[in-house]
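Batch 3, record 17
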Amino acid sequence: MKLQNAAALIAASSAVVAFSSFFIVSDHEYAIVTQLGKTARHIHSGGIYFKLPWPLQTVYHIDKRLNLLHSGKHETTTRDRRNIIAPAFAVWRVTDATKFFETFADKQEASKKLEGMLVHTKNAALAKREFSELVSGENTVSVLPEIESEVLAAMNTDTEKFFGITVLQVGLLQLTLPESGSRAVMQRMRAERSLKAAQVKAESLEHSSRIRAEAQAQRSKILAAAEAEAAKILGEGEAEATRILREAYEKNPALFEFVRELEVLQNVVSPNTMLILGTDTPPFRMITQDPEAR
Amino acid sequence: MSDNSDEAFSACLKAVGILGLILTLATVGYALSGFRFVRQHESAVVYTLGKINPSLPMPGVVPALPAPFGHVSVIPVKTAFSLTLEDWKNEKNLQPPADMLDPVLDGHTLAGGVNIVQGRFQIRYRVSSPVELEKAGPDTEKILSAIVYKNLTTSAVTRQIDELLESQGANWLADCLNAIRREVKQLSLGLEIDSLEALEISPPAALKEAFNAVSAAHLEADSANRQALSDAASIVGAANAERQELLIKSQAQREQKITLAKAWAGRFFLLDAQSRIQPEVFAREYRNAKISEILKTCRLEAVMPGEGQKVRIIWKPQQETQSE
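Prediction for the assembled complex:
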């Protein structure tokens, strides 16, 4: 019975040892196998692996997925000594499990270290720029991507070399001013708005006046053109009438003049007319002269 | 004795049988514990001994090894997620609004020309690659949020506040959306960004009155502009009508002139034909007839000699003469 118990114990222990000698590494993690505290090997891809049982060999899993880090809202200064607050973030992942394992106990420690680096490199990059460069307005290209690239490059120089970490992306989450700065900006913004309201009103007045003046000018132009056109039409009528009368004249010039003069005389003399004229002037000569005498 | 031992043996067999059954059920239960039910709008990433199966299973029951040998991550792929971003909104909400902002509590950022802007945004996205999402890790949504803020900040500093406030930042957000999509792809987050919307974009609360004054001025200007355009349209319209009238009048005058000339010429040709029969008689009679017509309205007062050989004639109106 004792022998049987011993056999069962050995079998169970062997099963436990055998079971603890296999370990599974997921595709989203690395594994470091240490042998008596020293790194024995590192595993980069997912699968089932064998190791010597504990305490001879131990496995450490290191997550290779993306991590996010925030720098916090700290004041810093630009080259022209303007205080600003520009919280940043970094997206990072472990790319060299051995270096990472040798440097950090866990991800929290790495995050703390990276946060310090992010704050330092970001502040250094901001200190190279004038405040006006950061908030240029005017639809120019922003310098922020340039700053972010600088920070990214500066961080990766050390993190890849010493920590086995690659920073994939760095960015500024916002750009703000300390309380005192925001007060001054808000006062200026309020003044600008008042000015702008007045400006909009003045421009509107000017614009409306211009529209009306342009309309008046257009009216004058239309009427001038219409008058010219009307004069042309009348001229054409005049020319046509003259042509018709010329035809009549050419047929019998003497009779034409005779008839015209009489008609002019008839037209000129009205009930309100009092004329004192020489009878030798046409058409009044008609009164004193016989047609034969002409 | 033998009866007792038989009974003990059968009891033992029974106990072993029950134990076997329990063990079998436990084993089957454990073996099936890895299985997952995947619904129509979901997809699943299956880990087998740590490796991700490259092919995604169809909806239904997805077989997988039990933990720790395998597991299944069920991911909704057709669900449209929305993430509300409220880091740039006024947290304090003081009454009356403060004339300065706390950089930590009062979320805001700077726009071009050093202007303060606040806002709340919403980004909508779907899972486009469950495997990429699984590999990106649990911080994906936070990373997406950071990318959105990064692009909003970068783009805001190049734009004046009026542009940001205009149409709820339509141009601003459109530019950001493109950049966000690009960066999400670069980081292989496994997400497809559908839209980025502004729930609110505004100046700080203390400045709203000043901004409203500008908006009111713009509205007033629009109204004045519309009035001016309407006035201008009536001025030009009236001018066109006047032009039309003038042209019609001149056309009529032209026609009248020609008609009169034609009529006169017609009458003249008739006279000419008459005059050719007895020219002298015709001339005398015609003249006399005309003169008598004239004398019906005016009276020949005097025909007297003038200076030299000339004779002067005086016509006086009939009425005047009568009144005399």
